[in-house]
């Protein structure tokens, strides 16, 4: 009986004669009878329905389809459906078996981020699920992605709430492993802006820079949304003759004359200097703030 053969079709990417192809592989029954396979390739449309791309009958335990940038493009989610039947008796066929959907294109891992304004760096991996083809014999065998950030959803449009460690990443050719055929990393950090602007959403976009390969020319990868959680801003004070309250609420007085370092940031170039001078105390020496400098 051919009703259930457990063919387990799986899609993997390959370079065939310098062009990107997808290969559908399936396990033939053992011991192998004289069986033919009917393979149907399809992709997910924008409405979520399957669109037929290509079909063939073959005695081989695999089937190829080429990514030409027209019928099959980057950004498509592709399926292969395999049915087995005996030669000469096509009406005796197995139940069709679907592969998992294969997304061909650029992926960001993680697909979304939630970070806080705490100065921490978060690693974002940019990977291609298809091999990087080399159209010529020169050294341009790479895909360069231009990265940009944008603020989303703020009432008043402003600068994005995130910064990236690089504006461009290069995807270089290499052997495919798992779901990655080429990968690069970039770090994402929330902007510490001292503004109590609530949690804001920014996005990271990627765009291929003048690719020579036709497959990449009309392709725009999916964006990554980054939620930035606002953290309360600390305050410190120096007032009257001077009473000082530190960021953590510690209180003391400093009645000396001179120029003092009031605040120094350890993680970035940020300092506040204060100048105190005699301001005419009757019973004892009294000093007051008379100047401030901030870097």
TrEMBL record:
GO cellular component, one term: cell surface
Boundaries of every VWFD domain copy: 234-295
Pfam families, A to Z: Ig_VWDE
PROSITE patterns on file: VWFD (PS51233)
Keywords: Disulfide bond, Signal
PANTHER family per the UniProt record, alphabetical: EGF-LIKE-DOMAIN, MULTIPLE 7, 8, VON WILLEBRAND FACTOR D AND EGF DOMAIN-CONTAINING PROTEIN
Name under which the protein is recorded: VWDE protein
Organism: Orthonyx spaldingii
Gene: Vwde_5
